[in-house]
Structures are given as structure tokens and as C-alpha cells.
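User: Please fill in residues for this 69-position structure.
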């Protein structure tokens, strides 16, 4: 149960962030993921761009849920 409790504690810390800090957290995670995708794209060929596109598509419902209300 130690690992699950650790994850639960981290999630509670994220949930407890003030709104501007939380938005910055999410934006920086998205930018970091984009940067990693752009960096690895030349090394893995066209698959890197497909992974980046899949990340954007998968992020759409989450972003809608976060920013819709």
C-alpha cells in the first residue's frame, strides 16, 4: 500500500494547488511533453510525430474537462 499512498498524496497536492499555479502546472506539462516529442522525432523517424499527434488528440478531452467550466 506504500506506493498507492504515495501516488494518492501527490494527487492530493496537485488538487490542492491554487488555480493559477494549477494552470501553469498543466501548461508546463504539456509544453514539456511537446518538447520531448520534438526532440525525439528526428531520431525515431516519422513515428515521433505520430506519437506527438496522438498525445495532442488524447489531451483534448482532458483539456476540455479542465478548461470548460
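Assistant: Residues filled in for all 69 positions:
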Amino acid at each position: 500500500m506504500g506506493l498507492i499512498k504515495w501516488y494518492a498524496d501527490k494527487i492530493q497536492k496537485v488538487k490542492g494547488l491554487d488555480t493559477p499555479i494549477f494552470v501553469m502546472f498543466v501548461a508546463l506539462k504539456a509544453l514539456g511533453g511537446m518538447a520531448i516529442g520534438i526532440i525525439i522525432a528526428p531520431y525515431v523517424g516519422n513515428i515521433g510525430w505520430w506519437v506527438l499527434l496522438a498525445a495532442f488528440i488524447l489531451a483534448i478531452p482532458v483539456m476540455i474537462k479542465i478548461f470548460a467550466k
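For context: The radius of gyration is 15 Å.
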